[in-house]
Amino acid sequence: MRVHVDPTKCQGHNRCYALAPELFDVDDYGNAFELNDGVVPAGLEDKARLALANCPEFAISIEE
Amino acid sequence: MTSVYGPATDWATDFDHADPEYNKNIHKIWDDLKTSGCPIAHTDRYGGAWLPLTYEMVHEISYDTTHFSSRSPVVGQLKPSEIPDAVPAPVGGVPPISSDPPFHAGARHLLLPIFAPKKIDPLNSVIREFCHKLIDDMGDKEFVDGAVEYAQNIPVMVVAHLLGFPLEDADQFRVWIRSALEDVGEAREQRETDQLALADYINKHIDQRIEKPGDDLISYLLNAEMEGEKLSREHVFGTVALALIAGIDTTWSALGSSLLHLANNSVDRRRLVENPSMIAQAIEEFLRAYAPVTMARLVTEDMDFHGVQMKKEDWVLLPFPAANRDEKEFPNAATVDIDREINRHTAFGLGIHRCIGSNLARLELNVAIEVFLERFPDFEQDTKEEVKWSLGQVRGPRKLPLRIVTRT
Fold it and tell me: Could you tell me the pTM of the whole model?
């Protein structure tokens, strides 16, 4: 599974960073980006889905 | 409080969001409008205004900066074009909230680093210490006002800290902010007096920082550059005013509403006392259910919007809390469920104007609620007194009578 944050949509709500800091980080402007090239370690798939479901801007996508 | 327009007569055709009945009965008013088939209410007050109630409409308006300008985010009796010295679009009086593209992006970009999570998180300890002190000051009293003695003080301390304002001035600027946000229906003269007093105060501090730079947001703005140029005095002033107005009433409103919920929902309260790690998720649900902020836009040209004819310069309220109650987007929207895991609520707005203070607000909420529950594991609403709601676009309890049952 891979996650991706669309930088053109991210507005820095930081829900993903709060819910899944193992998968997302934030830059100096508070915009989020995926860690580890977006590769989701085994066992964290539900967290990835939760982050996607909680982004008010629909900026997160998942490739299963 | 006497509105120049008189009391609202019909919420569908003559609504008034500044009428005391509105914030007091807001959920019922919205539910009644929707069930009677009115997804977008109208009024001739304020020169003409609309109130869209669905998530879909709020979403659409938020993203359409061409048809809906942010020129003036607080609805007033006069349109910006009727105010002689008003700073024109795309900058507006309080950049960047009042700014439209293309100016908006640069003005916002300047501020983002200050409010980024890693910059904000270290404020945890100073906020925590302050919360404890507020509670210490309550002594052994059985009856306390959760708004006046707790919630309202916290964001004031934080914003004063950010701007380098002396905390002793808090009572004073609290009055001016209230005037800016709540008294939109009052006779304009008093409001103008308050606005002038606030402007003087801000200008005095800007002048002080020019003389002697400090480590605060004002000094940062004076030093900052946009496209190689220092910011205009107007821009610096506007952003400072914005920090004051946007950072205070909004946060304590969310905090007060959350405490009111916990006072009236002992099951939720007990669960959070026993599992403080659940507080963060509960706060997101409180933000959804009790979102304090409604923004506003101005229509830029006559247009058809979902079957209604909007006129150029009509106000359009952006009630994020109403969008948060849309059943289509939030199953069981009327139920406050602290176990709700899927919650892409719009309390902090949507799109390019996402509340820049959201990380700070969340930090304040998390710490304030943690500390309150730690010190007062059992409390309830004191129903001998009434909760008094604020008026206008920021909804929160101005008076929150509580009875402390157990203190640690």
Answer: 0.95
